[in-house]
Structures are given as C-alpha cells and as structure tokens.
Amino acid sequence: RVSATGDVDTIHFYGISTAVLFLLLSAIPVSAYLASGSASMKGQLALIGVGKGTLIAARMLGLGMLFMASFAGLIELNLPGLAALVMVCLGAASMVVFIYQAAGSLMGGVMLLFLAVTAMHFLSGGFLPLVFLPATFRAAAPFLPNYMLMEGMKLVVTSSFSLAVIMKLAALALAGFLLSVGAEVVRE
Fold it and tell me: What 3-state DSSP class applies to 91?
C-alpha cells in the first residue's frame, strides 16, 4: 500500500529492498560474462572495430535485459512502471559491470560485488530503515547506488513517475559506463 505522500508500508519497503538486493546479487551466476576478457580476445575484437566502449555497453545492455527478464510476470507494469524498471535494470547493470571491471578478475568481481552490495545496502537503509541509522548515514544514503535503485524500484511498485528519480538512475547508468570504460583503459 502506498500512502498519500508516496511512502510505502513496511511489507512493501522490505519487498523493494529485497528486489534490489536480489537484482544486484543475481549477477553472480553470469560472472564469466561480466569478467574482463583476455587480451587476445580484446585485440581480435578491436581489429573488427569493437572497442572498449562497445564491449562495456554490450555487457551492460545484456545484463540489463537479463535483469528485466527476471521480473517478467512478477510485476504488473504500466508505462511509468516500465520506464522505471528499465532505468533500474540499466542502473544496476552499469553498477555491476563497473564492479567487475574494477576487480579485474572473475573471483575478485564476485567478492567485490558481494561486499560492496551488502555494505551499500546497509548504508542505504535496505536492511534497516534509515530512521534507525546515524545521521551521517542518512545524509550520505541518497548518493549511494543502492538507495537510487530502491527509489526506482519504489516507482515500479507504485506505478508512479518521478523525473528526478529517473534522472538519478540515468546518471547512475552513465557513471557506471564511464567508470567501467575508464577501468578498462587503465588496466591496459
């Protein structure tokens, strides 16, 4: 249930929180797809015109589509809810791809993903509502990816639209893409 102010009740809050946590951690089974490829493969792709940016974008879009497919049939969507779901999935995918790029290896990506996601989920108020966390955590939470993803998932659940939240998710997706390309460039 949603109140007149747009707040969700406790059950929906933890449902949203769990959906975001599931979404981010569900990338672990497809880790091999997300890990940085071999130098020879990258060289061969570069010869046919597939650069670092294209490779990162393909990983992000592929993972984003996998994320969207995981919600098929679970949520009744209208146009605002669908737009929010697309942005949540792209934002989550960009965050996950960046974590794997930053880690540089398959096992490092899995470990960093798990540690970063659980820490950010706690600091974002995903495990324990923000009102119970110290003021410094509450002040920092709106800048964390998990918080933005939970705000987006709230739009999906409530079938509402917020341009501010959509823009934050778009910025998250763009930042994840740029940081991933940067990590790829630095590695070589």
Answer: helix
